[in-house]
Give the backbone structure.
Amino acid sequence: MKTIAVIGAGNMGSALIRGMIDTGYVKPEQLYVCDHQREKLEDLAMELPAVNYCEHAVDAVEPADVVLVAIKPYNIAELYADIGPFLAGKAVVSIAAGWNNQMISTALKDTGATWLRVMPNTPALVGEGMTALCAENTLSEEDFAFVKGMFESVGRTAVVAEKLFDAVIAVSGSSPAYIYMLIEAMADAAVQEGMTRDMAIEMAAQSVLGSALMVLSTGEHPAKLKDAVCSPGGTTIDAVVQLETHGFRAAVMAAMDACAAKSKAMTK
């Protein structure tokens, strides 16, 4: 029956709150939520009235065992300064991009808190998130297992070494944007062929969803699944040739490289 302070009720914070309650992982009474935008708390309170809502971060942190920091990275240093005196014995979970272990450790020095860096992504809003939990952390085994369960309430989790977190951000944290662009481009092409916009988006999105589930459920290499769709002399192989001719895979890899490079730069 651990209690959780959620500092920041934006998209990710509220998604986790809903996911934990919807799956029964925690009861609403175990949650203490704070956000500097009162309207966010008021909206959430209409949906989840049994959650504890706090005007100040300290009020949420004091009764909590786990503190989830889900605010913008540029506000975190000030937050830690405010709540630092109240963190002794608590597990702090940071989802902020650009805040690496060294930065978190320095900010929480002498507070008596343990800490864990995680990187979720926005599909957590629909219960299909992918969250990386940093292998290098100071949480107890019990607290780590509890936090892992928190994020499993909104999708899948993986324990990843911090040296790979720039790759995590590129392949998972930022990648929904690439997929949305792919869906949009596929829909545009279908509209050009005469399909309605709504139908085109639905068919493109469902095809992406189904293809992803095929990879996860079969365990087959994506190349093998792609080959199974490409009949000799058929339509699909002609499409694949065009994608290769226009540098589809190279463009995706270059985009991810740029994303990882920006992630590295943010921690310096």
Summary: DSSP finds twelve helices and eight strands in the chain. Residues 247 and 253 are 10 Å apart (CA to CA). The two ends are 38 Å apart (CA to CA). The chain has a mean pLDDT of 96.
